[in-house]
Amino acid sequence: QICLSLVKLLFYLAHSPLGSIALLDFQPRQFVMVDGNLKVTDMDDASTEELSCKEDNDCTLDFPTKSFPLKCSVAGKCEGINEKKNLFNAYRFFFTYLLPHSAPAALRPLLSDILNATGDLRYGINETLRAFEKVLHLYKSGLYLQKRPLLLKDYISLKGFRTVEGEDYKCWPSYSHLGCLLSIHSPEEAAAICNSQLQCQSFIVTQHRTWTGRPLASFQSSWTDLIPDTNAVVYIKRSASSGERL
After folding, report:
1. For position 173, which CATH number holds?
2. 102, 104, 221, 224: which is deepest, by most CB within 10 A?
3. What does the pLDDT look like over 61-84, one tens digit per residue?
């Protein structure tokens, strides 16, 4: 969410009515999340000026660990230098820390492609935004899910119930520090996740949703303490419930 919101912001800056705008003091502390969107808190160090040049050798974009040769345009300006400066800063301050983590396994190669392409400045901001929107579409639609055996048949579902909230086993990346709370596309995906975790005996699909509209599911190591909840459905492994009366 943070990276996509940042890319949308940089897309606007690259195509603003004032021309391409560079953020000269590009640091994480200069941004804040407002209603799920990343905002710049200080525009004092923004600039629409692009470096003047006479030849390509005048257009080297330097960073502490990397340099990029750019082209000198007919107008005597280093082509796209503001856009590329913003994009590489997004890569080194945000993408490298956020993109490799917490995505479903099937989407990680696509995020690695974005990471590598922006790190080498092979992508401009237009290509980067398209790549992010493709990943978002796959994530929201569930198209990233690989064909696998149907596992939900191995669970008993009880509508209108949930287990008592409390500290349980933890997983990564959980939305709760007390247990294993993950976003899912469907109960079928939740069943696959539960099967992959040794401690998991049941999971609850709630009405709570993430910013992408995906429901949250709580994965738990037991199922015995059930209480009524009209907005929840609890799924219990048949193997865990064998010998017990539900």
Report:
1. 3.50.4.10
2. 104
3. 999 989 999 999 999 999 999 999
